[in-house]
Amino acid sequence: MTDWTDQTAPSLDDFARLAREAFDALPEPFRSLAGDVLIRVDDFADEETLAMMEMEDPFELTGLYHGVDIGLRDGMGPAPEASRIFLYRRPILDEWCERGDVGLSEIIAHVLIHEIGHHFGLDDDQIHHIEDGAD
């Protein structure tokens, strides 16, 4: 029997490592197209982000893309700042615990790939349609 008394929750660094592994596992050409995106891991979205997303519960937001998607860049020239993907550790951990049927690495990869979809210019409905077709 596993003794859980010596276990700790994965840290921000653990999440960053898992996100990097998920990114590195992306097939070409997706990895190259997403290559300039910075990945950041925080415990939660800040208050300003939650207000912008019209969310009160910080556990509702597992990830966020911030930047100009690659489809809009050609007409606008270079992006004024690097595109960023935020992964939120505590909401992802909460989802992982609630689901109990999928590994943490898989959930982190799912959130990361979803946010990369926004980097490619896809909206949530388009991403969900692609995800539904992959099942």
UniProtKB/TrEMBL annotation:
Signal sequence annotation: none
SUPFAM superfamilies: Metalloproteases ('zincins'), catalytic domain
Taxonomy, superkingdom: Bacteria
UniProt xrefs under CDD domains: MMP_ACEL2062
Gene Ontology biological process: proteolysis
InterPro entries linked to this entry: Zincin_1 (IPR010428), Zincin_1_sf (IPR038555)
Single GO molecular function: peptidase activity
Pfam family, one: Zincin_1
Name by which UniProt lists this protein: Putative Zn-dependent protease with MMP-like domain
